[in-house]
Amino acid sequence: MIFLQQVINGLTTGMLFALVAIGYTMVYGIIELINFAHGDLFMLGSFYALTVITGLQGMGVSAAGLLAALPVVFLLSMAFCALLNVGVDFLVYKPLRRAPKLTPLVSAIGVSFVFMGIGQVWKGVYDLHFPDLLPNTNLLGEGASLRFTGKDLAVFLVTVPLMLGLSVFVRTTRLGKAMRATAQNPVAAQLMGINVNLVIGATFVIGGALAGAASVIYGLSVNTVSFQMGYQNGLYAFTAAVLGGIGNLPGAMLGGIVIGLIRSLGSQYVGEQWTSALVFAILILILVFRPSGLLGARTREKV
Amino acid sequence: MNPLLRRCWPLAALAALALLPWIPGVPSKLVLQLKDILIFSILALGLNVVVGYTGLLNLGIAAFFGIGAYLTGILTVSTFPFQTGFWPALVVATVGTGLAGVLLATPTLRLRGDYLAIVTLGFGEVIKFAIKNLENITGGSKALNPIPDPSLPGFSGPWGEKGYFYLALLILGAVLLLLRNLERSRLGRMWMAIREDELAAACMGMNAATVKLSAFAIGSALAGLAGSLYAVSLDQTGDPSSYTFNRSITVLCFLIIGGMGNLKGAVVGTFVLMGYDNILTPWIDGRLQAAGSKVQFGDFKLIVFGLALIAMMRFRPEGIFPSRRIHDTTEPCVGVE
User: Fold this and answer.
1) B126 vs A235: CB contact, 8 Å cut-off?
2) Which of B113, B117, B306 sits opposite A114 (nearest CB)?
3) If 0-12 CB within 10 Å is exposed, 13-18 middle and 19+ buried, where does residue B288 land?
């Protein structure tokens, strides 16, 4: 029973990591950039949602009204993160497309510092309470030995459709096809008439929007946000992307779920304070034996 | 600049630095901060061997810094039976950290560039949590203390910030000398050959794995040396949060601002960034406060730093002192004429 409970908890947090991990993995797949700022984008998204919700509360909207307004909050936060992400790409990374690989990486670290600084100035350095709008009641009936709360359900209701939608989008639409082509070989894609810059922009929009959605549902289910949360959660999400095979969409989803499970089962059976160390130790082991991650293709370094 | 001046100004700068504590009116706090800057210069030089010379992105240098500090703590504090005193501990910390570097690098060197970076990042996180959680050994957040002052024949009494300042300056000088020679040696040239083109270097008969391993060993050993000095100058191993990913990234930024693969660059980058963080920012804040301003510059220093980093990458990605030997031929990922 405890085991099953931890599996439920692990899946819930894992889905959140997966949603953020997709943003890392898509950008890496297309321009081979480890976007260190992605976690901090996630943080700014939750700050934005918090501002919107407290604004609504200030206008005297009731709790039920807020619950009804949540889809709007989601859309606003997704749009905010998508715009921010694509804006940063346009201003910072785009001029560096032809530069050596370390240059955009360091720029991404710079963007991450700027985001974190903005978060610090915006909401201060202390932990903030995110309004508790979702019901925390056990859906399996009070008194049942397993707990699956309304919050958990909400996490699945947000993450699963988004991931399914993204998979369908990438597999079936024209733009999705262009994305896959660009990821495989940007030069050839360009020669085939694909607007590579548009594809890269779309990648940043989608990655940002998913981070925005993840940031709202994170705030609603964890109820605490701070300007440093981007760093820790970003690191987990990034680890998830690598674990699954960076550049690989199903890999990022699998990686997120695996990391969620390692964390929850580890905290049960190994000890709370060791879970993070466990995650990274397992990451190292997997990379040593499967250098391209769980689902990554066995690529050889291009000469 | 005339050639003689160009050759001598780093020496002159070090000499000027050595005289600084004797100038009347120099606050002892400044000496203390300069001591830290010198120690972090050694750490930056260690990272420079791995990232700058050999081109292997290491995002976990703080872990090696921490291993050096805690080895020193374990060997010297009174709660452990060793109590070897500082000098043997310094040697053990340096060599031991180098070995830790080899231990991490051996199974992971066959990984592609970015994956290696991630393994070092993961290793850094594992060490961070090990330091935090193994309270029986590391003291957790209470840290290991007190680490006794190093013993010198004919000298007793507290070392104070001046003593540690000179110790750090001396060791930094020795490390610079060592690296200057190493850079021009067979090994140094092999590092750079691997960085420029691993395949070509292997075709010339180099064993890429051993060359990379040696870079990892020496880089980690220098980080351990810096950690050992850091711990003894604080009299304790300090806060476990000194050894986190944040520190690794900051030290990487020292190199990038100063210029990769270049001794001057590593040291100057450390002085510029730590000077900004620890000396300039408090000074500006002091001024602002005196002027009655409620706004603190410290709140904005992260944004300013981030913007500076972005601007640097846009307009001068090779750093303040570009290395004369780096010729990056990496193909851009999206590149069509």
Assistant:
1) no
2) B306
3) middle
Distance CA B175, CA A239 (A): 35
How many angstroms separate the CA of residue A105 from the nearest CA in chain B? 9
Report residue A6: phi and psi, to 5°: -65, -30
Residue B293 lies in a domain: no
| Distance, CA of B151 to CA of B164 (rounded, Å) | 12
Q: How far apart are the first and last CA of chain B?
A: 38
CA nearest to B93, candidates B234, B227, B217? B227
Task: Quote the minimal CA–CA distance from B261 to chain A in Å.
Answer: 13
Per domain, the residue ranges of chain A are: 2-289
Q: Considering the domain A2-289 in this protein, what is its CATH number?
A: 1.10.3470
Residue B294 falls inside a structural domain = no
B159 contact partners, CB below 8 Å, separation of at least 6: B149, B150, B167
In a domain, B50, yes or no: yes
Per-residue pLDDT of chain B (337 residues; tens, 9 = 90+): 567 777 778 778 888 888 888 888 888 889 999 999 999 999 999 999 999 999 999 999 999 999 999 999 999 998 898 888 899 999 999 999 999 999 999 988 877 777 888 889 999 999 999 999 998 888 888 888 889 888 888 777 788 888 999 999 999 999 999 999 999 999 999 999 999 888 999 999 999 999 999 999 999 999 999 999 999 999 988 888 889 888 999 999 999 999 888 899 999 999 999 999 999 999 999 999 898 888 888 889 899 999 999 999 999 988 888 876 555 544 444 433 3
Mutate to test the interface with B, among A93, A107, A184 (most CBs of B within 10 A): A107
Dump strand ranges (E) for chain A. 128-129, 224-225
CA distances from B288 to A5, B273, B297 (A): 54, 21, 8
Which pLDDT score, from 0 to 100, does residue A231 have? Answer: 87
Strands A224-225 and A128-129: antiparallel
Q: Give alpha helix (H) positions in A127-248.
A: 150-172, 174-184, 186-191, 196-222, 229-244
CA distance A56 to A78: 18
Searching chain B, which residue's CA lies closest to the CA of residue A290? B111
Q: How far apart are CA B86 and CA B229, in angstroms?
A: 9
Size of interface A-B (CB pairs under 8 A): 162
Question: Is B125's CB within 8 Å of A92's CB?
Answer: no
Q: What's the domain range around B213?
A: 33-244
Best residue in A280, A285, A289 for a mutation probing chain B (most B CBs within 10 Å)? A280
The pLDDT value recorded for residue A272 is: 86
Q: CA-CA distance, A214 to A75, in Å (whole number)? A: 11
**Of the candidates A27, A6, A5, A9, which has an alpha carbon nearest to the alpha carbon of residue A17?**
A9
Q: Where do we find the tokens 């990984």?
A: B111
Give the nearest partner residue to B133 out of A238, A273, A303, using CB atoms: A273
- Establish if B276 belongs to a structural domain: no
Q: Do B309 and A107 touch (CB under 8 A)?
A: yes
What are the two backbone dihedrals, phi and then psi, of residue A128, each rounded to the nearest 5 degrees?
-115, 150
